Amino acid sequence: MIPRELERLLTLSKSLLDPQEVERVILPTIVDALVERKSASSTWVWRWTSQLRLLHVIGTALVAATAERMRVVPWGSLSSLALSGLCGAVVLQGRTELRPSPVAHCVYVGLAAIMAVIVLTVPVKLAVVLRNLAYAVVATALVVCPWLGRAFEAQRQWLAIGPLLVHVASIGVPVFAIFSFCTLERRGFVRYLIVSSAIAVSLALQPNVPDLCLYLAIAVVCALQYKPSWLLLLTWATSATGILVLLRHLGDASRWERLGLSALCAVILRMLWVFTSQQRHGGAAATSRLLRAMSLGCTLCLVLIARELAGDGVPLLSAGASIMIGVFVLFAAAMRAAEPARR
Amino acid sequence: MTNPFPSEKESLILALLAERGVMYGLELVNESGGHLKRGTVYVTLSRMQDKGWVRVAEDRSPGSHAGLPRPRYRITAAGHRVLMAVEAARELLVPARRPLS
User: Fold this and answer.
1) How many CB pairs under 8 A join A and B?
2) A213-238 burial by CB neighbour count: b if 16+ within 10 A, else e?
3) Residue A148 and residue A168 in contact, taking contact as beta carbons nearer than 8 Å
4) How near does any CA of chain A get to the CA of B98, in Å?
5) Contact B43/A29, CB-based, under 8 Å?
6) A342: number of CA atoms within 13 Å, CB side?
7) Residues A319, A92 contacting (CB under 8 angstroms)
8) What distance in Å separates residue B72's CA from the closest CA in chain A?
9) How does pLDDT run along chain A (343 residues), one tens digit per residue?
10) How far is Cα B74 from Cα B53, in angstroms, rounded to an integer?
11) For A253, which DSSP code?
């Protein structure tokens, strides 16, 4: 029989690690501790030493699993996306009538990239543990405390976190992304549909069009997991989101030409991005690298051309913390959803 | 994609298993002269199992440790090949590190 204190840590490890890791790493450590108990001089010392050692092993296993996931993060695609976002800062340069400032925009891009990496690397079990807590926070902010935050652009509930102005719904985007691939993997579609509907209702109380689009896109992308070809949908979703935001900024009909140009650029960019990110040319590394470099170059060129021709600031991925975080997280969610099919 | 090259710890484990045959995780730690730590040895062994360099010996019948089996590790043919490649590379590279004088 396993001692109670080690049993507790075993339960903890089961909630954090995959069953294979528990079997290969945690159980042998417990057996080693039991072997040493026979020769231990003091039961008290043995108990504390074995507990600390097991905690250390759980931490090591968690870090190793995260490091392993970091190795398969599509850094090329992520950097391409980050460059697209940073190009927005170039467009925003010198345009005081547009929000946010270039510096704030760069901060948004960095924050969004970090959140994407979190979604890409978080252990599924840990996400399940944290999910309820995160949902409670977002649901409380959206439904129970509608007075939270301040109004901006006719929408309430914008939270000022340092230099960031984030809509409450945006905080839920990474949570929803993690929840989506967890639930679909373990509990099936019906439960997912029920929870998604509940979230949609709570979001409708404080509508924010880009966030609503992102939630919808994440739901669709994750629901169609195991089909990486549906990642293409992601490109259209992000482009559509960008266009919707532009529509909000460019309500003037005389700017339709610019809008069309930016939409075209966004679509081309997104297609290039997906084309290179899915490693369709896995066998030819040189071709893959060339295409990726072309994608980065095209991203830069398109944004600069859009700036010159359009005459108005038209960031391809739009601007603002909410939308930047959403786009990056959507990208990460799509990658996680496609994981089983890529193995 | 997993790293096809062994780390120093992995090379050491391969060398110990090639020399001794079948070993427990704790034995590997004790025999490594402080190079392997108890906190990381099973994580390393798990990764090596994924790479196909070691496998758990078939003798995994439940022992007297609270009914839990105590795994023993054995080097595989792939592990032997990796070890030979590491040793060959070491022989080639070590003389080159010597000062010219």
Assistant:
1) 57
2) bbbbbbbebbbbbeebebbebbbebb
3) yes
4) 34
5) no
6) 19
7) yes
8) 10
9) 777 878 888 888 887 788 888 889 998 899 888 888 878 778 888 888 889 999 999 988 888 877 777 777 767 666 666 766 666 665 555 555 556 666 777 788 888 888 888 877 777 666 666 666 666 666 666 666 666 666 665 566 677 766 666 777 777 777 777 777 666 666 566 666 676 677 666 666 665 666 666 677 677 666 665 454 554 455 455 555 555 555 555 555 455 555 555 555 555 555 555 555 544 444 455 555 555 555 555 555 555 555 554 444 444 555 666 667 777 777 777 677 655 544 3
10) 9
11) G
Q: Considering CB atoms only, which of A20, A34, A60 is closest to B66? A: A34
Tokens 């294979």 sit at which residue? Answer: A20
- Residue B56 pairs with which residues in a beta bridge? B73
Backbone phi, then psi, for B41, in 5-degree steps? -65, -40
Q: Which of residues 48-67 of B touch A (CB under 8 A)?
A: 49, 63, 65-67
Q: Are A128 and A179 in contact (CB under 8 A)?
A: no
For residues A33 and A223, give the distance between their C-alpha atoms in angstroms, rounded to a whole number. Answer: 44
Of B3, B26, B43, the CB nearest to A61: B43
Between CA A166 and CA A114 the distance in angstroms is 16
Q: Any CB–CB contact under 8 A between B95 and chain A? A: no
- For residues A88 and A249, what is the distance between their CA atoms, to the nearest angstrom? 15
Whole-number average pLDDT of chain A: 67
Length in residues, chain B: 101
Direct distance between the N- and C-terminal alpha carbons of chain A, in angstroms, rounded to an integer: 38
